[in-house]
Amino acid sequence: MRKINLFDTTLRDGEQSPGVNLNVKEKLEIAKQLERLGMDVIEAGFPATSKGDLLAVQEIAKTVKNSSVTGLARSVKGDIDAAWEALKYAEEPRLHVFLATSPIHREFKLKKTKEQVIQTAVESVKYASQFFPIIQWSAEDACRTELPYLAEVVENVIEAGAHVINIPDTVGYITPKEYGQIFSYLREHVKGIENIILSAHCHDDLGMAVANSLSAIEHGAGQIEGTVNGIGERAGNAALEEVAVALHIRRDYYQAETGLYLQETKRTSELISNLTGMVVPGNKAVVGRNAFAHESGIHQDGVLKEKTTYEIISPELVGVSTNSMVLGKHSGRHAFKNRLQELGFENSDDEVNKLFVAFKELTEKKKEISDEDLKALLIEEKVSTQESAFELKAIQVQYGTSQIPTATITLIKPNKEMVQEAATGAGSVEAIYNTLERCVGQSINLIDYRIQSNSGGRDALAQVYVKIKVGESEASGRGMAQDVLEASAKAYINAVNRMLLLDKINDVSLEPSLLN
Ligand code: KIV
Ligand code: ZN
Question: Residue 7: CB within 6 Å of ligand 1?
Answer without folding.
Answer: no
